[in-house]
Amino acid sequence: MQHSAKARFITAPPRISILEGLLVFCTAGLYLPVWFFLTVRDIRRITDDELSPLSWTLVPLIFIVQPYALIRFCKYLRRAEKQLRLRRWPVLFEYLWMIIFFGCSVFFVAGSVVEIETLTKMIVSVLSIFNFMLMHRRINKLRKRCHNEAVAERHKGYNSLEWIAVVIFTPLILGLFLYTYINSELHDNLRSKQFFKHQRAVEEAQEAAAEKAEEKN
Q: Using CA atoms, how far apart are residues 97 and 103, in angstroms rounded to an integer?
């Protein structure tokens, strides 16, 4: 059965999850539409379901549709896994994955409206990428059962365009996080110093007023 599956279906080649996660990080999530496009395309080739890979590129960009879309995504993925006789995730774990994906999306949208600490943003970013890597590992298992054909030739894990993105934007994103964190820390320290300075000035004024009152008495 594995041999016939390999002979029949053609998908994108599997890729190490860490490399895939790095692409998501260095593009600030803009790689996710590409990932959904390729993944849904591969699922359609296996299941023959009427899916439009292009429409799925909107799922990571529009968080409102994610609760419904992610449930459908997992349903089609389970069909593909059944077709290839692969072990599927427990339903509870699948829903946990969807909740984390959607929760992180809501967090990032809220972060664009209200002020959130940089450290909190970093922690949620790491959580979202790790969550994504778990799903990509699942997709890798599916692709390993099929023949693979890359959109562009890869060199040590990435094609030329992906290498450009990783080399240029990874240090930029890291630098931005670091700068924002240091700047926020300095701002908080300055605000604390100003607060204590103001508090000290009030105490000195109160002491001076008390001394004058005693002198009059």
A: 10
What gap in Å lies between CA 134 and CA 145, rounded to an integer? 18
Q: How far is CA 158 from CA 19, 20, 109, 171, 177, in A?
A: 8, 9, 29, 17, 24
Query: What pTM was computed for the model?
Result: 0.78
10 phi and psi, to 5 degrees? Answer: -120, 125
For the CA atoms of the chain, what is the radius of gyration? 26
- List the structure tokens of 106: 């809501």
| pLDDT tens string 163-208 | 888 888 888 888 877 777 677 655 555 455 555 555 666 666 666 6
CA distance 140 to 55: 22
Is 203 among the domain residues? no
| Contact (CB, 8 A) for 36 and 62 | no
When divided into structural domains, the chain yields a total of 1
Q: Which pLDDT score is estimated for 215?
A: 66
Task: Go through 56-72 and write b for each residue having 16 or more CB atoms within 10 A of its CB, e for each that does not.
Answer: bbebbeebeebeebbee
pLDDT reported for residue 2: 42
pLDDT for 98 beyond 60:
yes
Look up the domain containing 49 and give its range: 2-159
**Within a domain: residue 126?**
yes
> Across residues 42-61, what is the average pLDDT?
94
- Return the pLDDT at 189: 53
